Amino acid sequence: MATYIVCRGCGYRIDLPFRLRSEAPIHFAVTCPRCGYRDVYSYADIVEEGVYRHTCEVCDTKLYSFRIGYVRCPVCSSRYYIASDGSWTLIEKGSAPPRTQQSFAAIGAVLGGLAGSQKGRDSLEKLANTIIGALSGMVLGSIVGALVEALSSVEREVVYEAG
Hints:
Elements: E1 2-6, E2 13-15, E3 27-31, E4 38-42, E5 47-49, E6 52-55, E7 62-65, E8 69-72, E9 79-84, E10 87-92, H1 100-117, H2 123-151, E11 157-160
Helix pairs in contact: 1-2
């Protein structure tokens, strides 16, 4: 469970105080304790050791584990077994959470249909207004949902501690 970089001057392994590469800054300067060579390293130069990473096949959450064994995705409750770094086996498939855009589209369709049904004199006109209101509400809800997804696109990641 270590992250380190290799000195470009002498090849010495320099341990870093981060547990995951994602916790490190993009660029940072390090002086080698062995040869004194100072250089700027990037995020891509970091080597992780003992970290098993995988993306959930159901909900696209990034999963990190520091141990071999069973792991459960907290978002969709899928269960995985970690055999090695490249071998994550899906044991039990969970259900994906609803997408924001689809949820807003459904809410918009219901509200638009309710608003459209209140207008009109006879039943045929009320039915037409309900359908038009539902369609326009669904389009408007989809647009709002897409904007909410774009503005709040936070990458989900879950770290499992050793234990």
